[in-house]
Design the sequence.
């Protein structure tokens, strides 16, 4: 009888220990590697829809630099994170003229905009980096210029200025919900 009691307590302790380890691992993964985010609003249409649930890779920018057209999540304020697309990288001059992106005076294609042109009116109002908050001639080191894909309805670098890298949470590239929208984006 004593062996049965001892065995029952041991089994119970093993289950508690396994659950604590699982919760600990989940906490570490959530804090340092991946986090969920829900797209809130129309600023990334047509690429991302309101209510899309995504995974944010919080680790990627610890081992690599952001690339143009990555979709990133950043702290817009203490209470709110935004999701936008990287357009300008440190050291670059960014301008839009007649709906064409210019990086350092050279036109750059935005393939993610062209493939949805028939479905949406995707027009970017003319601007240059000097006209944005901060009055920069080039994107400063440690900063990014970001825009929403729905250029007519997006609070982005045109209003916020360039975004410091230490405000970047990570890259969002996987929609996992709703099921009919599961896909990698930004590729």
Sequence:
């Amino acid at each position: 009888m004593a062996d049965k009691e001892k065995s029952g307590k041991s089994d119970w302790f093993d289950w508690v220990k396994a659950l604590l380890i699982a919760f600990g691992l989940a906490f570490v993964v959530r804090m340092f590697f991946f986090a969920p985010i829900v797209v809130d609003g129309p600023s990334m249409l047509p690429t991302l829809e309101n209510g899309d649930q995504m995974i944010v890779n919080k680790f990627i920018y610890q081992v690599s630099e952001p690339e143009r057209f990555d979709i990133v999540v950043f702290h817009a304020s203490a209470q709110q994170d935004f999701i936008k697309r990287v357009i300008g990288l440190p050291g670059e001059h960014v301008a839009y003229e007649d709906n064409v992106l210019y990086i350092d005076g050279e036109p750059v294609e935005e393939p993610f905009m062209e493939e949805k042109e028939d479905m949406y009116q995707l027009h970017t109002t003319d601007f240059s980096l000097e006209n944005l908050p901060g009055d920069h001639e080039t994107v400063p080191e440690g900063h990014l210029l970001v825009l929403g894909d729905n250029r007519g309805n997006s609070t982005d670098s045109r209003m916020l200025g360039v975004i410091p890298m230490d405000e970047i949470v990570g890259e969002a590239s996987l929609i996992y919900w709703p099921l009919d929208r599961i896909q990698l984006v930004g590729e």
